[in-house]
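Give me the fold.
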Amino acid sequence: MTGRRTAGLRAFRATLVGTLITSVGLGLTLPFTFVYFDRILGLPLPVVGVVVAATSVLALGASGAGGALADRIGLGRVAVLGLTLQAGGTLVLAAAREPVLGAAGLAVLSMGNSLVWPSLNGLVVHQVPAERRSRAFAVRFGLMNAGLGAGSLIAAATVSVSRPTSFHVVYAVDGATTAVFALVLLARLRGTTGWSAHGDHAHPGSDVRYRTVLQDRPFVAYLGVLLALAVFGSAQLQGPWAAFVAGTGGSPQVIGLGFAANTVAIISLQLPVERWTRGLRRSRLLVACALCGALAWVLTGTAGFPGTSATASAVLAVSALAVFGVGETFLSPVINAVPNALAPDHLRGRYNALNSATYPVSKLIGPPLAGVLIGSGAPSSWVVTITLGLLLTAGGAGLLGRRLPSAVESPHRHLSR
């Protein structure tokens, strides 16, 4: 058992190294999808929006298929497959000189991404002891944000619309770092627990279907809270938030500083927050996340009040994303720990796939909602709607605590017995 645990921890450390490497590459390209398609590949912005939405639909379908595949052939194998697709799609984007090839690359990239993260989340259960899993998820989230921040800073200093080649270079680097991650996993995870399946043959009397997962009422209730957090929270963070700030007089520099503040808050506070909140119920962490998000949107709305000085508006807008980042540190120890605590091994791929599917679903709901509200002539209605949405979500998270099994809701209390 000791040798098995040691092998698992080594595999998890390899995953952390690969996460950091690929996150730096992703940070080089993440802010530029719309700009790349519009200014470099010549696709009008409204059409770019349709392309991005379509890839979200593909990602959702791939997530469902990937969960079933992981339960059949193994989480590790699906993670490597997903990284291979992601790397290939990114390299196609790097080579694209017209929008059709670029859209094809983005589609393959999105589908690969939908296979990778659910599989890696499920593998943590096999790699890390139960008492350390919340911290493991938090560490990986913090490293991912550190890599994204570093990559974004490099991109800001090197990428320019006046030099289209610079875009092709950063996409090529992004694809290369993803390929390196695939090789790291292939070398370090093969043969470890979770690489192969825990599927039908291991549980011949089990009903291995998504229908079985959706009969787990505590899990479905958790998915509802997570989807609401995403629709009124993370799905509003990039395009909608930036559009509101710009529409109320904020400069591109203020927007950039806001995202920098968000990254700094996550990197500096993630591990301390995980340590300070380790004994709290998981539903209370979800409540804290929702309330931080609501406060962030109130600060954003205040920054856009007519008559607010430019300096005060900038401070409020930047502070808003810092507060939002604090909320994300409350979420990261919970978001992947809960589904893996509820999932049996033979359905772990499906549980993680549905958990990850909340992100593309939120992208189909949140940004269109924001577009209607911000473009309505009363952009403050956007602030009011998403703030109320998160306040209601906080109430739902509080009720969720009554539905979760006590070992899932308060794991440290049970582990200490």
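The mean pLDDT is 88.
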